[in-house]
Each structure stands twice: as C-alpha cells, then as structure tokens.
Amino acid sequence: MSAGGAFGGNRGARPVPPEKGVFPLDHLHLCDLEKKEYIGCLKTSGHKSEICRRFSKKYLECRMAKNLMAKQDMQELGFWKEDNSEVSKEENMNGRIKG
Amino acid sequence: MVGCTYAAVPLYRRFCQATGYGGTVQRRETVEEKILRHAQDGTVTNREIVVRFNADVSDGMPWKFIPTQREVRVKPGESALAFYTAENLSSAPITGMSTYNVTPMKAAVYFNKIQCFCFEEQRLLPGEQIDMPVFFYIDPEFETDPRMDGINDIILSYTFFKIAEDKS
Asked: Is residue A45 assigned to a domain?
C-alpha cells in the first residue's frame, strides 16, 4: 500500500477522474431503501451485477429524483428499458438496431 | 505538506481533462459515448470479471471505512454499481478525501469510473454513517486485449485521508 502515494503519487497507472464528477453524499439517506434492495439482490444472486441491474437502475433514478446525481439518459449509463426485467442485453441491442 | 498535495488533486483533475495529459487521448471519448457506441455496434462480451473491493484509512483518520459488498461479478461493457460505507467514529466533524487505485495496474486503463465519491472532500458529523457509491464500467475492449488474458479479477482499493477536523 503506497502510504506516500496520497494525492497523485501513484506511479504507473494514474487515477482517471470520473466522467460526470462526483456523487454527492446522501446525508439524509433518501435512497437507502434502493441501496439496500440492490445489496440484498447481490447477496442472493452470487454477486452478479447483471441479475441486479434493475435495482442499480432504481438506485440511480432515486438519486436523480432527489438531486443527488445529474439527470442523465439512462441509456447512456448502460441501462435499456428492458433492464426492468431480465431480458438479455444482446436481445435488447439487437432489437434496438433493427428498430 | 498535506496542504500542498491536497490542493494538487482538483488541479490535476482539471488539468487532465483540459489537456489530455496523463495517458488520456486528446478529445477523449466519454464513458457515456463509449457505452452508446458499443450498444450501436452490438458488442457482445462473455467473460465474467470479479471486481473486489478494498478500503483503508490513513493513520489518524478516525473513520470506519469498509466495502459494503465484497465483490461484484460483471462483464466488460456492463455498467455496475458498488458501495462503500464510512462512519465517523470520533466526537468531532471530520473532513476526508479519498484516492483509489485499480490492480492489476495494466487492467486499470480499462476500468472507467462513471461516478464516484473520490477527489472531493467529504465531511461526516460525529457518529454519522454514510454510503459511498461507485458506478463503474469495464471497457469491452478489455476482452479482446491479449495482455488481459488470464486476468479475471480486478481489485478497486480506496483510501481515505483526513483533511480537517472541526474544533468546537
């Protein structure tokens, strides 16, 4: 652990800043329920992100609704409307390209 | 010393975004643009990567800081959410700032953070517990890079440093 590498002292791969900036902290715990549902899903699904996508989508939508995240099109965050169910991403994209 | 290096982080970020220095290309495609491009191309990925999480605090930083989930299994090209939890165990408000790294280092270039809590000061009141989300995306090109053969685990490590303590 590079104790001296506090702020940019990381030799090699430098940290790249996040694209849309920072998640403000949810000090009022407004999206706690959505977070708990997501974490609960991970624990019961072998920690597979794909299975729990609808919960992560709900969490981000909660953040946007409570001004804890800049509003963005969910598609550009990698969510398709079929992410409310368990349709595969490949089926989503094939449908989108044809349509 | 801490004051100088602390000031460097936001400057570094603005500098990087403006000039493309530090391994970024000139007009860097944003992660969102990359996501949409791969969707249009119909990119399909198959390889499951296990992303594990480490959390540390520096000496003298009186926070409990842990990953909320021990791992997330994700395919390149899937955006994914993960959480850390921080709690100020002291009796004074404490401001911290975090840095992170990704290992193995050669995989770090493919690990994109779409949103996170890093590079900004975070202030917790005494006893306050907070969730800290990270929303990330592993570039699909990870899967076709021969240097990434045999890499099936990526570790995201965060460290929180104490910036300030409010004296009451």
From this structure: yes
Q: For the sheet containing B49-57, what is the strand order?
A: B71-74, B49-57, B153-165, B94-103, B122-124
User: What element of type H or E holds B41?
Assistant: helix B31-41
Instruction: Read off the pTM.
Output: 0.77
Reported as a single tens digit per residue, the pLDDT across A9-46 is 334 344 444 446 578 889 999 999 999 999 999 999 99
Give me the CATH code for the B2-165 domain, please: 2.60.370.10
A10 touches chain B (CB under 8 A): yes
pLDDT in tens, A89-99: 444 455 444 43
Domain membership of residue A54 as a residue range: 32-93
- CB proximity B126 to A under 8 Å: no
**Residues of chain A numbered 20-49 and touching chain B (CB < 8 Å):** 20-23, 25-27, 32, 35, 38-39, 42-43, 46-49
Rounded (10°) CA dihedral B88, B89, B93, B95: -40
**Residue A60: is its pLDDT beyond 70?**
yes
Residue A1 lies in a domain: no
Alpha-carbon distance B55 to nearest alpha carbon in chain A (angstroms): 11
